[in-house]
Amino acid sequence: MTHALLKAVLAGAYSQGLQLFEGLKRPSAQDLRWGGICCLNLGNMLKARHMLLTAVAQGDQAARIDLATCLRFEGEFTAAQTQLGGLDMDKLTAQDAALALRELAILQQHCGNVGRAAVLLSEAWHHSITADPRVQSAVAQSIALVAAQQGNDVKAESYFQFAEQNANPMRRVYVLLSRAASSTSLGKFGEAKQALKVAEKHAMDCPLAAGLLSYRWGMWFSAQGQFQQARECFGRAIRLARGQQQPETEFYAQLGLAALATATSDEGAERGSLARAMILATTPRAQAYLDWRQGAALVRRGDPHGFGHLYAALDYFQTNGCTREVVWALLHLTEAHAFLGSAPAARAALREAADAYLMLGSQHDLAFELNGLERTRQLLGTLTECEYERVLCAPHIPAPPVAEITLVTLGSPAILVDGQRVRLQMRKFIEVLAFLLQHGETTLGTLQTEVFAGVPPRRSKNYIHQVRHELKRLVPGLSVPYDAATHTYCVRSEGIHLTWDWQQSWDALLSSERDVMLSANFNAKDFLQDSESEWAETERERMSRWIVRVGLETMDAWYSTGDYAKCVKLAERLIEIEPLDEGLHDFLIRATVQVSGVGAARTLCWESRTLFAKEVGHVPHLLDVLAQQLHHKHLN
């Protein structure tokens, strides 16, 4: 059984591996290690940590490697290094030695010591030669990432190719995300998008990568100046990272939002993102990135304290061999000197940036950073063709205009292209798209059962194919392809920006901003209002229950802080969705006492009790108690 469990782990079949583990009556320390790895990759951090700690306690010292990985995911870098420090490398197998050295290198890279990481990975590669190819793939991916960070893109590409060819499904997602990051920084946006699309298709194999996937999309949009799409992706990355306890992913997504806010002079958003990032900065490298973005923000506000932050970031990047980051920091120092300092100092910083850029091989795309540096661009514009610093003006091909496609399912269903309604003749057109967006890859049989219940199979199949044909004709870039290998349909977008009002409402409610409950369009009864499909009704009911639960939690927080008027407004909105939820009536009446007095609350209580008596034949005990308290005027 142990052999089968290890085989499942190496293959990336973590659900199967966990089932095998749970079938063991007396798991060994090594079994606990493999089971812990399965839990880790399935996103159950608490259980993974417990199993790996138990494996170490029972004598499997190599489980410290995977425990360190678990701790790193949770942002506990010092604790991860402590676990690895307890290993005797001479007693490890070649495979475990390679994995231990790789994990040490990743920790060094996260802390900013790129040179030391490269040395450790070279040693890890030496040990991995006799190991399983999938272990070699993991080491190769890390080598490629470090090489890309050092500016050695030829080396990075060869290792990326090897890693992708030998990876298990989970590891392949991470390799693709790493390739996307490298291609984005080089300005190879087509290649980056292709890698992200493939990673997106296989994201189910790697649930832990969901936040990182959204972050990489955010960086891809940012690099091309598509700020609104980038904000949405960074926001989604933050929510996912919080849910999966991945503080490092949230940190860099917050910095992505801060950079966008600085570039667009949105000081409120800028301060909020930087404040959150400050709490999450737990490594020297993270602090350097934070200093960089804080310095840029202060300079934009005309505050000379920005110089100190920028020089601190530059010093760290230079000391630790982060040449790519050195270029960025020097461009921002050029801006700072041009805005707050002197022209000679700005020119000197620009010359240093050109030196560092050439050290990278003059391949990295600088457009995104330069887009937000007005005075640096002006300075570059004054240079003659023969002046040295002109190397920073490498030609950049602007991204073609992207069509904004909106799927409207709250209210009258529609498709909008750049705000204009598309004329649709087929009644279930929007419903088919909404179902596929909600469920992903779907078989014909599932579509027929869920969306076309009661319709003859041949007729519904023909309808679906008409939808595909009409969509291709009416909305170029949006399609419903059929995958012959998996026998499934899905929604695909190419060269467009697709938004769905239902998903936007869901994302808004998942945000940490409670006030969004007062303005977001979340009346689930409006969802595909003309559809009588069972799945649509189920979705309305599911969303209604979830909205009410979130609303009750929100009102509880508001009530405790004295925001009674907000409670009244939200309760009134939610009662329109669930008129027979006694908890909502309770909040409405209690908050009304505080806002409008006992008399108004008594009237509301009478109306609520009358409604329940009429609709369900009895008055909830909670409302009877409220009525008695109001009568005796001692409601709190």
TrEMBL record:
<dbReference type="InterPro" id="IPR005158">
    <property type="entry name" value="BTAD"/>
</dbReference>
<dbReference type="InterPro" id="IPR036388">
    <property type="entry name" value="WH-like_DNA-bd_sf"/>
</dbReference>
<dbReference type="InterPro" id="IPR011990">
    <property type="entry name" value="TPR-like_helical_dom_sf"/>
</dbReference>
<dbReference type="Pfam" id="PF03704">
    <property type="entry name" value="BTAD"/>
</dbReference>
<protein>
    <submittedName>
        <fullName>BTAD domain-containing putative transcriptional regulator</fullName>
    </submittedName>
</protein>
<feature type="domain" description="Bacterial transcriptional activator">
    <location>
        <begin position="500"/>
        <end position="623"/>
    </location>
</feature>
